[in-house]
Model the fold of this input.
Amino acid sequence: MADTVGLKSNHVVEIDGSSASVRISNDLPVVFIAGPCALESRAHALDMSGALSDIATRLGASLIYKTSFDKANRTSVDSYRGVSLDEAMPIFEEVRATTGRPVLTDVHTAEQCAAVGDSVDVLQIPAFLCRQTDLLLAAAASGKAVNVKKGQFLAPWDMANVVRKLVDGGCENILLTERGVSFGYNTLVNDMRAIPQMRETGCPIVFDATHSVQQPGGNGTTSGGDRRYAPVLANAAAAVGVAAVFMEVHEDPDNAPSDGANMIRLEDAERIMSRIMQLDALAKSFQREDA
Done:
């Protein structure tokens, strides 16, 4: 598959924050992409990014802070979506400046890519939009790294076509994220074979632990989920071998405005991240022996 998309095996993506750079590859130590689902306010973003950055420092881990300024694919028209683009950009810039860490956010339209790219380091393509050619090409043209979440409706090998679009658009700093596949109504399951299958593109593979336990639309007007199983799946993915683990974290997820049922509690994040790092080190030592 790698030959079909033009990337070498174990391609390295390099992302520069304001003072801390992150190198992501399938054979390098695991990176964390973490933060609350939706951007709630400047104060909340600074508190959460600071807390997660401190955890990463204590663990000696690489971190990309994530939060979405707009949740355009909410279940209900009444659901909280975030803040405006104009309000969000200065907040992203302040988070980058105060933590030194790279910042990631979702984009939903081609027009957003250039504007958002001025203030963040990674553009994320939501799973539902992963085949939108104009959006992918605009993200590629931004000059930023691009993280594409695999659609719940796609096979792992289908992501080679997504990568080909980005490469043709001039982007090689590409991450691919596994976040489960639809299994009947309101249910996602994870087939861990998807990780090595997508790894054949050469792209670093991210495992989304918290959206993998989501129950899309499961609560009628909102999505449900069960955060208890997010660490279980993250550990399983680390044992298989991934470049990064994506997990949404909140200090009070039960009262969060978006995806609270899935998010990991901030007080549990350090323990969960530490265990993932230990499993990652062991899995990659096996990979080196088998190479």
